[in-house]
What we know:
Keywords: Oxidoreductase. The chain has helices at 14-24, 54-64, 126-134, 152-162, 176-185, 190-202, 253-257, 296-310, 314-319, 321-337, 342-345, 371-378, 390-396, 414-417, and strands spanning 2-10, 30-33, 70-73, 77-81, 85-89, 94-104, 108-110, 123-124, 143-148, 166-172, 208-209, 213-218, 225-230, 233-238, 241-245, 248-250, 262-263, 270-271, 284-286, 353-355, 360-361. By secondary structure, it is of the alpha/beta class. Strands 1, 2, 3, 4, 5, 6 and 19 form a seven-stranded mixed sheet that branches. Strands 8-15-9-10-11 form a five-stranded parallel sheet. The site of flavin-adenine dinucleotide (FAD) has 36 residues, from helix 1, strand 4, strand 7, helix 3 and helix 4.
Amino acid sequence: MTEHYDVLVVGAGPAGLAAAQAAASHGARVGLLDAQARHGGQVWRHDVLHGTPQPARKAFNLLARTRGHVEWLPRHQVIAADHRTLLVETPRVSVQLSFGSMVLATGARELLLPFPGWTLPGVTGAGGIQALAKQGWPVHGKRVVVAGSGPLLLAAAATLRRHGAHVLGIYEQAPTAAVAAFAMQLWRWPVRAAQAAVLRARLAGIPYRCGSVVRMAHGRDALCGVDVDDPRGPLRIPCDLLAIGYGLVPNVELATMLGCALDHTRIHPCVQVDDLLRTSTANVYAAGETCGIAGLAAARIEGSMAGHAAAGSTAAATALLPSRHRARRFAGLLALHFALDARARALAGADTVICRCEDVTLAALDGFTDARAARLATRCGMGACQGRICGTALAELGRFPRSGIRPPLFPARLSTLAATDVPNLPTDDSRGTYA
Ligand SMILES: Cc1cc2nc3c(=O)[nH]c(=O)nc-3n(C[C@H](O)[C@H](O)[C@H](O)COP(=O)(O)OP(=O)(O)OC[C@H]3O[C@@H](n4cnc5c(N)ncnc54)[C@H](O)[C@@H]3O)c2cc1C
């Protein structure tokens, strides 16, 4: 049986929660789904020690006041879609959901750049270890180096310290002048400035070094130290964990599958939307990080706008446009001041593993000029992450753009794939071309 919603919202982070609330305020029947067991997305992730952040609780409680207009569908992962139906897997069953209109609020993931030693146990994404710590992974007493680029490093370091980790230092690749220029602009976004001040206070005593890049991770069976290229000279830092991420990349896979046009003006595309957050596919809207990395404030405003518009209230959506423009200007500031240094793109050597799922080295990819040919010859990008990590890194390294997004979007059960009318699954003649 197919369940139908007037408005179906994919993703229950700040953008999705706001979209569901806005759509329900016009009386629409709303489905709000997320692959995660709890609402909140990345920034408001539930913490086993410290609970659900207050803004997430507040946003969720507002949904309860819609008198049943919003149905919350946790642990619902979209694995395939066409323009009217989503195929969704839950831990037990697969279901099809249809919609009058849909809001894509699928967020972002971290950009991980390969370097020698990055596959050692103990090396994780900065946001990745933040999520693990919140979910109960023990970091208490561990010596952690935090590195990469962007404000997420501060948030990750603060979470790690809160969970008892010994944060040895934060190594930001952007030069001091760029970070200082960024900080000087923050007064224009008082909420951001306040967040930064709170984080800095929580991180008191932890060195914050700019213009520094982790060149190598050492260890036999697990991480035992890192080499850092620092403006004051090379450093070798013994540590138990390295939390490293080079910024965020929009999750556009579902939008691509739905035929939504992407904006390719940056290395990592985002979903193209108009002033009402309509994508190029009829009745499909997008909001938050999937439309380009701009942070929490933009996600909340865009979620509200998309929810209003998806429920047919263009006036309510348009009223929020000036706030959106303002919040989006912050994205430009981030991109400008935390632009990646050429050193970060030159860390991988010929024998550095690029595709962790299929053990493919950089040298094995020499000579290939497109992702499909490389995939067919080397299996690069054919593993569990389906190129989300290696394909994104290769685009950043200037090899070739990621391509070939096909269903299922995530590894799925055979019983789900065997369902008769799965939307968008490949026909027999193309079935052999992917893993
Ligand atoms: C790892 C990580 C950690 C971050 N930590 C912070 C932080 O501490 N502070 C901060 O200010 N910002 C943080 N950010 C930035 C963050 O992206 C934004 O601030 C904010 O969360 C964006 O909100 P959003 O609603 O657009 O997306 P998100 O919050 O990312 O929400 C997207 C949701 O969509 C769901 N989803 C995606 N695809 C599917 C699918 N196919 N099926 C079902 N569900 C799906 C995801 O499970 C997720 O819950 C982090 C980002 C990342 C990637």
